[in-house]
Amino acid sequence: MRTRTESAQEALSAEDGALVRRYLDHVRVEKRLAERTVILYTGDLQRLGQLASKAGLDLRQVQNAHVRRWVAQMHSAGRSGRGIALILSGWRGFYVWLGRQALVDHNPVQDVRAPKASKPLPKALGVDESIQLASHVQTGDPPGLAARDACVTELLYGCGLRIGELVGLDVAAGPRARGWIDTSEGEAHVLGKGSKRRSVPVGRAALSALAAWLEHRAAWAGEDPALFIGAQGQRLTPQHLRVRLKRRSMLAGLSTPVHPHMLRHSFASHVLQSSGDLRAVQELLGHASIGTTQVYTRLDFQHLAQVYDAAHPRAQLVRQPGEPSTVAPRPPKDPPG
Questions:
Q1: Is 270 among the residues known to form the active site?
Q2: Is 22 tagged catalytic?
Q3: Quick one: which of 35, 40, 125, 195 has the most CB atoms within 10 Å?
Q4: pLDDT at 315
Q5: Active-site choice (217, 248, 264, 265)
Q6: Is 316 in contact with 327 (CB distance < 8 Å)?
Q7: Given the DSSP bridges, would you call strands 317-318 and 197-201 parallel, antiparallel or unpaired?
Q8: What is the pLDDT of residue 297?
Q9: Backbone angles phi, psi at 110, to 5 degrees
Q10: CB 121 within 8 A of CB 322
Q11: Is 287 a catalytic residue?
Q12: In 10 A of CB 212, how many CB atoms?
């Protein structure tokens, strides 16, 4: 039975097919990429071969202008900017490899960029929903498990931590610790993206939840220095905490399942709504660029627009989160009796 890779290479000429096989062997064996990634690269190169064949070209004859034309065609056909960017990445890697083999003298994908994709707004909870989730009491769970879930929730929402930063926390500071919480100072010291360290304030609610969890953790502790561990004493994985948080949100009666990054978004949105200090939110989140943080100003505007629609007697705009605004007349209120 033919594999998907073999079927894809049938669309190529004998010479191009041999080059593609060599490249796929390279990424599979030497670069040790996952089989799923190799399959995606295979599909990308099959598409490249089909486009080149229609243009009467071998893969080594493709020029920058051809690639730009094909990008425009894919975009006109409805392929998303993100999808095109992934395809270009696969093509770019193939031509980089051909260049290293001295089989081409230039990379035709160099400097070709996909159309900008629209960035969806991050999903954030409202303040009331966040408090409902954080204050939920898990009566059906063992006390230690309930205390751990409560502490995880308070730190994610109260500090805006990434899930990787949370699971990287140790019980105490040390030369090998990626992160820890200084309870006396009320600060969490974490190792974020790009191995950048930052300190984040920890509120009273989170410190109280931490103290409750540490009492139970003592009965579970093994040799692992991790702050959050399972009953066997091993450091918890991000996936395990995602499952626990989703379960907690359902038990708390929230209308949508909650994932860890949603609490980070909620933290940022609520701090910005209250303070209006975008630069402070950037530092709290550990963003390298203020542009990354600015997405929360859009969430903040949606919040203000909803308040305006609900409260102003002359409001005309009717908005729903994530939807374009529409103009609709509001029915007049009955005069007071």
A1: no
A2: no
A3: 125
A4: 55
A5: 264
A6: yes
A7: unpaired
A8: 79
A9: -60, 135
A10: yes
A11: yes
A12: 18
